[in-house]
Amino acid sequence: MMRIGHGYDVHRFGAGRPLVLGGVHVPCDRGLVGHSDADVVAHALMDAILGALRAGDIGALFPDTDPAYAGVDSLVLMARVADLACERGWKVVDADCTIAAQAPKLAGYREAMRKNMARALGVSVESVGVKATTTERLGFVGREEGIAAWAVVLLDRA
Ligand SMILES: Nc1ccn([C@@H]2O[C@H](COP(=O)(O)O)[C@@H](O)[C@H]2O)c(=O)n1
Ligand SMILES: C[C@@]1(CO)OP(=O)(O)OP(=O)(O)OC[C@H]1O
């Protein structure tokens, strides 16, 4: 039997923050605001896995009121989610992510994001897809107020 999961997350831009996407520090004059490193694509992918596991969501697992997660590297949390999947007898076989960002241009960082998230999950880089799109200047993404990300994942029995 296989399981499918879907995740979605949004973080707003703020000054004086690093922009971290898929574990990559993307050069930018502002970053995303969050209790953690606000890695919006890593959060979407973790939620997709937790959805497939029927194990709640990242907010339940890693509360934003817990000082332990202040500024945390989201890939560390992703490795914990992968461990949880393993403990429950599941493995990630495939994942795909879409990042909606009007700016900055992300094409040059996609491969590094794939590698980073694949490493955190303990899977081949071929098992993780990352794509970027603008929203043609429409909506909160188009106004450059924040970045949104979606992810889907397929789990199989380990
Ligand atoms: N932040 C982004 C957004 C888009 N890209 C790349 O540009 C292509 C065209 O985007 P449209 O939104 O105009 O369809 C997209 O397919 C990506 O390759 C990007 O690198 N960074
Ligand atoms: C991972 C966490 C930890 O505080 O990150 P945040 O930066 O608070 O991001 P959000 O997507 O709002 O909620 C998930 C949190 O659990």
Number of helices, counting only DSSP H or I runs of 4 residues or more: 5
Which sheet architecture does the biggest sheet show? 5 strands, mixed
Structural class: alpha+beta
Structural domain count = 1
N- and C-termini, Cα separation? 11 Å
Hetero groups in this structure are: the ligand Nc1ccn([C@@H]2O[C@H](COP(=O)(O)O)[C@@H](O)[C@H]2O)c(=O)n1, 2C-methyl-D-erythritol 2,4-cyclodiphosphate
Description:
The structure is a single chain. The protein is α+β, with helices and mostly antiparallel strands and 158 residues long. 30% of the residues lie in helices and 33% in strands. The chain has a five-stranded mixed β-sheet. A two-stranded antiparallel sheet has the order 2-3. Helix 4 (110-121) links the parallel strand 5 and strand 6. Bound molecules: the ligand Nc1ccn([C@@H]2O[C@H](COP(=O)(O)O)[C@@H](O)[C@H]2O)c(=O)n1 and 2C-methyl-D-erythritol 2,4-cyclodiphosphate.
Features:
single chain; 158 residues; alpha+beta; 60s Ribosomal Protein L30, Chain: A; five-stranded mixed β-sheet; two-stranded antiparallel sheet; 30% helix; globular; binds ligand L45E5XJ5; binds 2C-methyl-D-erythritol 2,4-cyclodiphosphate
Draw up the topology in text.
Elements: E1 2-15, E2 19-21, E3 24-26, E4 30-32, H1 40-53, H2 58-61, H3 74-87, E5 90-100, H4 110-121, E6 128-133, H5 139-142, E7 146-157
Parallel strand pairs: 5-6
Antiparallel strand pairs: 1-4, 1-7, 2-3, 5-7
The structure holds ligand L45E5XJ5 and 2C-methyl-D-erythritol 2,4-cyclodiphosphate.
